[in-house]
Amino acid sequence: MKMRKPCIATCALLLLLAAAASTLDVKSAAATKVAVQWGHLAPSGYPAGEGDAQSWICNEIYWNFYNTGTWASSNAYGTYTQLGYVAQVLQYCQSPNNGVTWATTWWVGDFKPTGGNPQPFGYLGFYGHNGQDIFDYDVYKYANYYLWPPPNSWWQPIPSKQYFAFIWTCANGGLYWYTSNGDWYNVPGITSPAPSPTYPPPANPNTKYGFVVNPYSTPPTVVGMPLAWTGSSSLSIDGYNSPDYGSYCYVGWETISPWMVNPTGYDSTQFKWFPYYFYRCALGYYNSGTHQTIQYSLNFASQMTLGTPFYTSKLYNGEWRNSTGSGPGGWWYSRMRVFGNSNLILPY
Predict the structure, then answer these.
(1) Full-prediction pTM beyond 0.85?
(2) What pLDDT, on a 0 to 100 scale, did the predictor assign at position 93?
(3) What pLDDT was estimated at residue 238?
(4) pLDDT at 9
(5) 50-66 and 273-282 helices, crossing angle to 10°
(6) Angle between helices 136-144 and 83-94 in degrees, nearest 10
(7) What residues contact 278, with CB distance under 8 A and at least 6 apart?
(8) One-character DSSP codes across 182-243
(9) SS3 of 298, please?
């Protein structure tokens, strides 16, 4: 499949964000829905072809949104994935002046923890370009507040417009705490590496995907990407099987995520095809233009790439993976978590 270069955008949204995401395109200056694709690899530790595979899938997702004719879409993979640009795009979506009603994010690449406190991993983040990394407390600030320009210069809390986030990195979608104070159970294979796989696999008694570390800072400081993107600490922790009735859905990985070039074990398929089929289904390309729910789209993508529905797949139920990248070595129990409401449909 030939790579296609994004067109040059011409609307007000593009003019505002030209320095941040020169690939952002819209069909109409009145577009109020924004889809952005981000991602960046660590300096080393990834397999051959991974960078090309990540770039390819971001490009495909970009075109899936762009070709609907109703979404502002931006492929910001690589160079544009850095804190300053992420902040500008999130703040554009949050601004009361821009009329954005719905936003969604796809992120692929490498996870970067700060280490130390808060335990067990420290603050959770993404690698960014030229060392400009992005952490959960950054995302929370820019995705849930709006900083009015001078002379006002104050942070206004505004509910996040990031209603659906699909984050394909290690660790940025796990349950690592069991209280809102950050208490946690150490579970080998989930919060620390295990020396070898165990059977049955480890049960995870932790029930929290994030918590507020400092409620007195402005904005408050949080840890945990699902909390950071949605601003909600009460999402269903099994949003696939028991979706709530809220406005948000977050899909991410507990512990290790597979590389895009890794084989799924079904029909010589690589994992890069999972998000490909997911977004094609969610945006109606296989359903005569009818958008499908996140839950249905996960099932469809799983059937196409693993030969089984999502609920019986190793993504939902988990599997042991050995760390060979830049993170702590050892065995980790890898599973895809779905938080919130998987009955959401990407709007038309």
Answers:
(1) yes
(2) 98
(3) 98
(4) 30
(5) 10
(6) 30
(7) 166, 297, 298, 300, 301
(8) ------BTTTB-BSS--SSPPP----BS-EEEETTSSSPEEE-HHHHHH--S---TTTTTS-
(9) helix
Q: CA–CA separation, 121 vs 325, rounded Å?
A: 16
What CA–CA distance (Å, rounded) separates 198 from 131? Answer: 37
Report the distance separating Cα 87 and Cα 20, nearest Å.
9
Residue 116 is encoded by which pair of tokens?
């130390």
Q: Which of 84, 62, 92 is CA-nearest to residue 130?
A: 84
Reduced to 3 states (helix: H, G, I; strand: E, B; else coil), residue 278 is: helix
| CA gap 319, 295 in Å, rounded | 21
Phi, psi of 290 (to 5 degrees): -85, 120
Say which DSSP state 263 is in.
B
Place of tokens 């999972």: 274
Mean pLDDT (10-residue bins), the chain, 348 residues: 31 43 44 92 96 98 97 98 98 97 98 95 98 98 97 96 98 98 98 96 97 98 98 98 98 98 97 98 96 98 98 98 73 98 98
Q: Given this model, what pLDDT does residue 5 score?
A: 34
- CB count within 10 Å of CB 87 equals 18
Confidence (pLDDT) at 323: 86
Task: Name which of 176, 47, 80, 71 is nearest 121 in CA terms.
Answer: 176
Rg for the chain, CA atoms, rounded = 19
Of 292, 266, 269, nearest to 280 by C-alpha is: 292
* C-alpha–C-alpha distance, residues 340 and 185, integer Å: 23
d(CA 336, CA 172): 10
Rounded to 10 degrees, what is the CA torsion of 195, 198, 204, 205?
-100
- Asked if residue 164 lies in contact with residue 252, where contact means CB atoms within 8 angstroms, the answer is no
* Angstrom distance (rounded) from CA 215 to CA 27: 41
Structure tokens of 157? Answer: 């809390």
Coil, helix or strand for 168?
strand
Q: Say which amino acid occupies 36.
A: V
CA-CA-CA-CA torsion for 334, 339, 344, 345, nearest 10 degrees?
Answer: -30
